[in-house]
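Design a sequence for this backbone.
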C-alpha cells in the first residue's frame, strides 16, 4: 500500500521467513533466542515478540531492564535475558521475572544480595564471559571466584553461560574467532565442573550461526538476521527486510543554476534542478551523515540523492528528470531498497541505520 505520511512498515511475514531461514541453519535441538533490544532493532518489540512466541522461539534478549519490563507489560511470557543490567534495576528484574546477565564480580555480588533480600531460591541468571571482545564479561581467570561465590548461595542458579564473538562476520578473523570459541569451551566447562550442573551454553550471533556451525552449543542468539540483514550480500538474498521506511513528497521546487538548497547552502545547483522536500529528518533517524549526496532514496523506481544538509524535520532530494508529483511515495530503505546499501553509502552499517528510526515515526504492522 502507498504511504501517505512518514511510516515504518513492519512486515511480520518477512520476520517469519527470516526466523525459519535462520532456524533451518541450526540443529532442531538447539534453542533459539531472539534479540529484540532497541525496540527490536528499531521496529516494535512487543509486536515482534508476540509473533516470535508463536513461532516457538525459546528465549528473548534485550539490552536494558526497561526494555524487558516493556515486553512483560506487553504480555510476553517467555524468558527474557537482560544483556546489560545495572544494579539499580535488580529489584525490578526480580519483580518482573527477567533473567540478568551477570558479567562482573560487582554485579554478581550485588545480584546475590538482591536475590537473598527477596528470599529467592535458584533465581535464574546467565553468566557472561569475556573471551576477547573486551566489552562485558568475566575474564577467564575469574572462573574460580565465580564458582566459589555460587557455591556459597542457593539464591541464584546458572541457567546459561555465554560469550559474544568480536568478528563472526569477518572470514579474515577466523583464527581469532576460533580462539574465542576454544576459550569459551574451556572456561564454561571449568565452571560447569565447579557448580555441578549443566546450564545452556550459547555463543553465536547471526553471523556466528551462519559461519560457525561448530559453535552453536545449546542455544543461538539472532538479532540482525531476523530483521532481514545478514552481513553479506549472499545471505541478504535469502532474507527479507522486515522494516520499510517510507515517506511522501511534501513540496517540489524548481531551482535555477547557482541557487542553493538548505542550511549553510551545502547544495549549489550547477544547472537548473528539480528538488523535493520530504517530511523526515535527523530527528527521525536520518542523520546528517546521509546528506550531501552520500546516499539515495527511491521514487517510482528511480533513485534520487539526498542533497545539502539534513535538517531536523526535513530532507531535500534531487528529482531532476524523475516523473513524480507532490504526495508521491518515497522509499528510504526496506524491502525494495536495502538498508545495508543506504547505510554503506554513507559509511555506516544497517544496524545503526535501522535502530536509529526514532519514536516519532509511526509504526505500521503488516500481517
Ligand atoms: C546484539 C547482540 C546479539 C545480536 O547480534 P546480531 O549480530 O544482531 O545477530 C547477540 N548477542 C549479544 C550479546 C548482543 O549484544
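Sequence:
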Amino acid at each position: 500500500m502507498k504511504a501517505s505520511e512518514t511510516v515504518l512498515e513492519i512486515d511480520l511475514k518477512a520476520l517469519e521467513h527470516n526466523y525459519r531461514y535462520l532456524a533451518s541453519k541450526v540443529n532442531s535441538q538447539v534453542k533459539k533466542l531472539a534479540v529484540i533490544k532497541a525496540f527490536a532493532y528499531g521496529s516494535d518489540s512487543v509486536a515482534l515478540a508476540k509473533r516470535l512466541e508463536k513461532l516457538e522461539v525459546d528465549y528473548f534478549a534485550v539490552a536494558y531492564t526497561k526494555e524487558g519490563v516493556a515486553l512483560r507489560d506487553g504480555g510476553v511470557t517467555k524468558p527474557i535475558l537482560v544483556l546489560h543490567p545495572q544494579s539499580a534495576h535488580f529489584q525490578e528484574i526480580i519483580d518482573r521475572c527477567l533473567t540478568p546477565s551477570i558479567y562482573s564480580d560487582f554485579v554478581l555480588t550485588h545480584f546475590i544480595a538482591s536475590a537473598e533480600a527477596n528470599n529467592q531460591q535458584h533465581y535464574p541468571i546467565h553468566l557472561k564471559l569475556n573471551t576477547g571482545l573486551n566489552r562485558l564479561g568475566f575474564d577467564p581467570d575469574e572462573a574460580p571466584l565465580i564458582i566459589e561465590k555460587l557455591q556459597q548461595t542457593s539464591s541464584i542458579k546458572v541457567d546459561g553461560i555465554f560469550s559474544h564473538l568480536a568478528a563472526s562476520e569477518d572470514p579474515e578473523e577466523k583464527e581469532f574467532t576460533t580462539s574465542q570459541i576454544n576459550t569459551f569451551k574451556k572456561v564454561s566447562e571449568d565452571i560447569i565442573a565447579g557448580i555441578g550442573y549443566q546450564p545452556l551454553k550459547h555463543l553465536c550471533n547471526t553471523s556466528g550461526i551462519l559461519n560457525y556451525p561448530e559453535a552453536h552449543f545449546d542455544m543461538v542468539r539472532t538479532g540482525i538476521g531476523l530483521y532481514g540483514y545478514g552481513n553479506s550480500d549472499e545471505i541478504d538474498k535469502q532474507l527479507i527486510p522486515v522494516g520499510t521506511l517510507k515517506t511522501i513528497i511534501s513540496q517540489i521546487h524548481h531551482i535555477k543554476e547557482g541557487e542553493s538548497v538548505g542550511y549553510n547552502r551545502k547544495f549549489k545547483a550547477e544547472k537548473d534542478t528539480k528538488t523535493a522536500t520530504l517530511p523526515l529528518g535527523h530527528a527521525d533517524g536520518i542523520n546528517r551523515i546521509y546528506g550531501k549526496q552520500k546516499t539515495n532514496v527511491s521514487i517510482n523506481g528511480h533513485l534520487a540523492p539526498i542533497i545539502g544538509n539534513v535538517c531536523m524535520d526535513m530532507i531535500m532530494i534531487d528529482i531532476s528528470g524523475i516523473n513524480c508529483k507532490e504526495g508521491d511515495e518515497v522509499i528510504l530503505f526496506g524491502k525494495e531498497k536495502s538498508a545495508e546499501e543506504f547505510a554503506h553509502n554513507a559509511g555506516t552499517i544497517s544496524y545503526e541505520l535501522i535502530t536509529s528510526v526514532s519514536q516519532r515515526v509511526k509504526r505500521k504492522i503488516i500481517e
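The chain has 13 helices and 19 strands.
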